[in-house]
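Budget justification aside, the reviewers requested a transparent look at the raw inputs and outputs of the sequence design task funded under Objective 1. We therefore reproduce one unedited record. The lines immediately below are the structure tokens for a 385-residue chain.
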């Protein structure tokens, strides 16, 4: 699941608040379960109409996701206090995630950024608990009671030592402080996280067979946690491999621009097949006018290639995302992912000096894997007799 995309609904301290499409699923499910199952329970004796139950369910679901947002904002504000950039927060099917640029710089920093999330959830649980106590003789108290319980559960769940949950990050910070190696600490925390994920998956399956379909939630959460743990470890390895690498170290020379009045069939025959390039800058009257890629080319039916010009299929220059030679490769990869592109032109003071593609970055990773970090001291080679 790509949790870096979604509809931007606002900004807080320069952080984009995104809502992933999967959020609508859990919103509908929470609203339905509260309106049809929990709130009408005879134990509460509310006596509301069906519409009132549904309104209460929808309001509770919105306040629940507001609680999740506050949980994530607490991480964000603490990260900003440590000088980190947080481009966005995304609300999705299993809660929320803060997209932080870069890794933690110290165990202490990670500990406080991680622990503040569960603490904020428990703070909300106390607030809603007090509201329940004050209104306990009124029907609205059931909403405050639910929100108090769900925030307490959210804080407790996030403290499980399963990386990349908050508890897993707290655990990693402790291990990191002991072994003084972030990669090793991440590997240990990721292993523990995957073990917890497998326990949830197996437990959920057993639940389904013996107690009911509710166990599917634990299976889904376990699968998500397993995938997130693996991706988090891979991200640390990626940042370790590409740390300090900038676009100028990896980019390739830019292919010669193509006239935008060429037909797509001419582009395919004279440039794509002959040069094996996947992206070309276009020009008009000696000036760069846009970018055309293999995706843009194949997006037009082949039968129309002879009659379609590059100008009709290209991306205009005003919409092309660019980087500078000193832009970090990690930042470039983030831009490619955020804007769903496979290449970025590299400009130096407005002059085109190169092209950076996903393939170039993957090739650099492959070379790193084969050669390793030459700056690190290597153990002496074993001498064979």
């Amino acid at each position: 699941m790509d949790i870096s995309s979604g509809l931007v609904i606002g900004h807080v301290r320069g952080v984009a608040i995104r809502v992933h499409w999967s959020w609508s699923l859990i919103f509908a499910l929470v609203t339905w379960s509260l309106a049809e199952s929990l709130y009408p329970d005879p134990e509460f004796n509310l006596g509301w109409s069906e519409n009132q139950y549904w309104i209460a369910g929808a309001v509770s679901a919105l306040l629940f996701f507001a609680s999740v947002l506050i949980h994530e904002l607490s991480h964000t504000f603490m990260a900003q206090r440590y000088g980190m950039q947080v481009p966005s927060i995304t609300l999705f099917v299993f809660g929320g995630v803060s997209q932080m640029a870069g890794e933690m710089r110290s165990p202490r920093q990670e500990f406080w950024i991680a622990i503040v999330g569960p603490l904020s959830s428990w703070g909300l649980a106390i607030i809603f608990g007090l509201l329940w106590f004050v209104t306990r003789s009124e029907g609205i108290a059931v909403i405050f009671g639910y929100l108090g319980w769900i925030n307490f559960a959210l804080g407790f769940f996030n403290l499980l030592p399963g990386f990349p949950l908050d508890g897993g990050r707290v655990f990693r910070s402790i291990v990191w402080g002991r072994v003084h190696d972030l990669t090793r600490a991440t590997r240990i925390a990721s292993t523990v996280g995957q073990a917890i994920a497998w326990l949830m998956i197996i437990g959920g399956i057993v639940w389904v067979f013996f107690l009911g379909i509710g166990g599917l939630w634990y299976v889904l959460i376990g699968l998500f946690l397993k995938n997130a743990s693996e991706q988090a470890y891979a991200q640390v390895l990626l940042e370790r491999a590409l740390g300090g690498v900038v676009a100028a170290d990896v980019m390739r020379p830019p292919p010669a621009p193509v006239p935008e009045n060429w037909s797509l069939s001419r582009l395919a025959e004279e440039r794509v097949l002959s040069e094996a390039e996947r992206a070309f800058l276009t020009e008009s009257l000696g000036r760069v006018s846009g970018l055309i890629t293999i995706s843009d080319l194949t997006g037009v039916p082949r039968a129309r290639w002879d009659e379609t010009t590059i100008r009709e299929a290209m991306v205009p220059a005003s919409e092309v995302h660019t980087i500078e030679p000193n832009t970090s490769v990690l930042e470039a990869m983030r831009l490619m992912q955020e804007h769903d592109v496979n290449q970025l032109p590299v400009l130096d003071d407005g002059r085109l000096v190169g092209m950076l593609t996903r393939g170039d970055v993957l090739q650099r990773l492959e070379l790193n894997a084969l050669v390793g970090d030459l700056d690190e001291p290597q153990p002496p080679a074993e001498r064979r007799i």
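DSSP finds 13 helices and ten strands in the chain. Residues 50-81 form the longest helix (32 residues). Computational costs for records of this kind are itemized in the attached budget.
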